[in-house]
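Sequence in, structure out. First:
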Amino acid sequence: MKKWLIAAVSLAIAIILFMYSNTEAKAAGMTLGYTTGDTASYNSLVKYHTYMNSIATDTFAFEKNGQIIGDAPTKQLTYAKKKNIKTWAVISNYNDTIYDFDGDLASRVMRHHTAKKRFTDQLIALAKKHSYYGINIDFEAVNPEDRSTYSRFIQDVTQALKKKQIKTMVSVPAKSADDQNDDWSWPYDYAKIGQYADYVQVMTYDEHGIWGEPGSVASGGWIKSALQFAAKNIKANKVIMGIPAYGYDWDTKDESGSAMREWNELKTLINKQKAKPIFNKTSGSMTFSYVDKKKHKHVVWYENEKTVQSKSHLAKQFKIAGVSVYALGNESESFWKAIRKGTK
């Protein structure tokens, strides 16, 4: 074969391989696992690291003066760096004093110039010190009157981080419309937040929880509506959808007996109670009931491998940036295999 022909064939093969690898990378998208900084999270990271390309360490909060508090899980960060997994630092407005997300705490930092500057400066310092790829801002229960203030806050923080080559992800509640009467989701202006942030993580879980009536944690129709709204207001290649590695167990007679059930815990519970799970066609989720030692009826809703695969496939259907999982330490390999099958 002549040299020029060999060179041409080689070039063609190289181009095909390059295009194929780029297509594969694009198809894979982001698969992000939230970690809580504990041993279980670290063990899951080590066991299942090949299934994810990003982790978000949910270990930081802040005080009313803007001071960042919390510890970096250095063991996890070292391992992630070794495996070329991108790392995000989650900063939430969770208040240990009230054991809940604190809208007033968020408002204070957003509205007070000195606190806002300290908060922003410390985000940069935190990212640099621990080589975080980006910051994940997770302000929940933001006050309705702070809607525009929060958007401006995100704009200012993301611009400051961008100057230091630090990416920004913002976590927002799932919603299918802007409803001023919905105090939980109204404060988040998807269009403006999406304009400024590099990624927007839509929390497509907790459709139902033990604070209310039993129901699917993340029904298929609910997720679709949320993704449709998100993709309409935010560039699809910025949107991340959340997948829960847990379910909820409602004690129908005593609220204190209700609990969140981790993925691994659910199979044990099913076997122990000799329960017979049923696939609910309307929600695309699994459910079962049982009676405890106190003779209280329990209703459980959760996702299994088939429903996780089906719901994670929505990321591909809507051509969004990827999926996130809450949280590492709750799950088994079958969970990750389901996500991989769904996102292929």
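Second:
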Amino acid sequence: MIRIELQIELNYQIDFQGADFVFNIHVAQTASQTVSGETLTLSQAVEPHIHADPLTGNRYMRLRAEPGPLTVSYQATVDLVHHWADPAQLAEVPVHRLPPEVMGYIYPSRYCQSDRLIRLATREFGSMWQGHSRVQAIRDWVLSHVAFTSNSSNSSTSAVDTVIERVGICRDFAHLMIALCRAINIPARFVTGTDYGADPILGPPDFHAYVEVYLGDRWYIFDPSGTAIPMGLVRLGTGRDAADVAFATIFGGVLSQAPFIRATAIDDPSRNMMLPQHCSEALSTDGIR
């Protein structure tokens, strides 16, 4: 089991008209991810409204903030239980056998225009053996063809843009991998968490984008940017792309500061708790379908 102590702090300066926020910073509650304790602190005396999506487990917090500074602080203790699998045993699932709740992840979406990348995906991956190895090849292709470069993209950058520019941040790597998978009929989706294990040379800890691909009978985790340790993924949001699971969506005049994030794993073998590490097995925390 992996236990992670998560801390998130967000700071904003709101103009004279006030602003509305929708946050996706609460840890998702799934069968494989248990929240044993959490606290939320707001610097303003406002009433948050929290809604849990019954399908994904995403928890969205909506609030109306008054003019002036706003600090949002969230802490949680999270226990993760992973399913481990031999990658060689994981097959792709034909479209006609996909569960209904998975079907939505084979279609193009706002940032993952898979319909525009069919020719590229077919040329690069169409003749490969179908299964985990082909998905791994897509992940490796993205990693080798795109340079991780801070501040190289913006909120409108899509998978097609990343193919052209060949630079991006974690969400751009994720969007491109998802689009290429979908272009050859492999369901793939976008997952937000934190960049546990990232090299400090990349900057302070931050939110991070992962990819989950449906193989066999569950979703398996990939990190196409190669900057984090997938075993340390604490799931915040699951969606088609970043448009579904932004950590903060803001309506109004607001100045934002860089988020403060800390994810600390507990190493305690006596309680069967281990540190996240890179491994050769395929990993899943598929507590949702």
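Remark: Helices lie at 118-125, 132-145, 159-165, 170-183.
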